[in-house]
Amino acid sequence: MAEQPEQQDKKIILVGNPNVGKSVVFNVLTGSYTTVSNYPGTSVEVSRGQCQIGSDRFLVLDTPGMYALLPITEEERVARRILLEESPQVVVHVIDARNLERMLPMTLQLIEAGLPVVLMVNIMDEAERLGMQIDIALLQEKLQIPVVGGALGRGRRGLWELRQAIQDYLPRQATFAYATDLEKDIQRVSSLMLGDYILGKRSLSLMLLQRDEEIVERVRVGEGENYAALEQVVNETIFARRVDLHLRINLERKRICNGLLTGVIVQQQGMQPAWTERLSTWTMNPWTGIPLLLVILYFGLYQFVGGFGAGTIVDILEGTVFEEYLNPWVIGLSERYIPWYWLKELIVGEYGLFTLGVRYAVAIILPIVGTFFVAFAVIEDSGYFPRLAMLVDRVFKKIGLNGRAVIPMVLGFGCDTMATVVTRTLESQRERIIATLLLALAIPCSAQMGVILGLLSGVPGALAVWMASMVGVFLLVGLLAAQVVPGVRPMFYMEIPPLRVPQLQNVLIKTLTRMQWYFMEVFPLFMIASVILWAGKLSGALAWLVQAFNPVMRLLGLPNEASTAFIFGFFRRDFGAAGLYDLQTEGLLDPVQLTVAAVTLTLFVPCVAQFLVMQKERGWKTSLQIFLLVTGLAFGVGWALNRLLLATGILA
Amino acid sequence: MKCSFCKHELTLDMVRDQGCGGCAGGCRKVHCPYCGQENPIPGRFLDRLLQREKK
Questions:
Q1: ipTM attached to this prediction
Q2: % of chain A beyond a pLDDT of 70
């Protein structure tokens, strides 16, 4: 085929989410005459090819995957730029027949933008296998654009119809009405726009209201002197709707799509894996969702992490492998070959690199964190977490957060330090401060929680007291913080991905990757902490520090030896939890003391790494305030709990 | 790869662009630009192992 200048060809642009078969559509339309090159000024690749349909010759562009016309990633920006600059004859929106509900809002946006859209409902074969019957003719009638159903990956079903739809394309413009108040806003903005644009003014107005920077720039140029008046109206509208504008637009699109899909999809009874949808609904309904959450916590955390990880595996590794074999062997070698006391202490002493650092990291923390990461990956891969976000949204709103905060909170159970970094994804400064405070205070990391679950599960009632204390402090401090910390309360909206059976390979990859990352990070820190403690012991500084802590320990009703666990805890939360494990195995704590120590140590100050990240994310002033508040609360709650348990005789 | 929280597709470019630079020895996580979730990326050793299994 001879190369023709691109300008002579009409253009077909393929758009759609990733993994909907866009590239298959591209390949069947263009055959093998294709080129792949970076889009000018970016590293994003765009495929181009040519095809002949009827008497017309077309240049076909396969754009990077995009989820909406409002871009978030570089790929989406490039895809939209192509739509804005290439003046297509036809835009083929390729969607997955199995996920019409999730993908149709973008079709709506493309129609709204005035683009010449042909909708290709791909992967129909898989949808039919799941018992879904899609009425393509009805969908076409409702959308008022050509709609083609097919399965181009297998047997090229629908290719002829797609080529026909492209060839016969006639521009038509349907309008889908939003709620009256939103319509007024759109009308107010679009009526002030005087320039000529490729995209429709209705669509541009919505993107201006959502502060799309690229669109703002284009409209600024397009409007010239008129822009100032337009900008003022846009700003006024954004300010008036600052709480829920994005949410309203998304919900309105969802409502319109639900209306459009009524009668379009018929699910054949008995063929659908209906249990996943039913389960999905149950997970988000408070009446069924909370019992389900408790079941997940019981089996996932209590039984698997606390019982199996912190119990069985730690017993084998710490109690047998280290205590009976490795420690005596390494200590024997040191006794034989190392004549210097200080060096022996450094390697196999009370705070030795091997006897404390390696033992804590390998025998206590790693198995607990490993089992936690397995449980986490199974839950994560099933798609449960977005449902948890919807479930807790209402409660989280009471404490100044919303469902979006589930991500840092859940990650905090893995490691509070990385979760503190993730708080930057929350929308407002207010939410970030509250989430940082709650992470530092009441969210134990996986290793700390695993040790505590393992230790307290042996004492009847202790675990219930610990859990009630944590939930109580979390909610109480959250409620107070929501009253005290100023700022707006953003709304929460998210698409719920399908629920599915976790894939073994995904679980393995995620678990091993996280364990590798965790071990690489934790091991050197444990070594450093051992060296600092060793130096403290030899210099006498540690004894002085322990002595300084003793009055506080007495106030909490704890033995003086418990000071070391708190000092360990400041190096790392998990290091402190391992210290608590040693105290308990040495028989130094009774049930009340164990519970008080576990509660205080969980609430106690964030570790050094978390504090440094807090300082980086929230600044010195806020992080110091959080540090002082958390320290005061930890010891205050510990003192009150000790008094309460002694007075009532609970756990006695 | 897909984001483990919202299931949006993540590309290798995002892995390069979205790393926070906080990991010692290079970034082993990608922050999903859609929801903020931290997704683990297999390290070199694990990656080689997985590639070998695929072959």
A1: 0.77
A2: 97
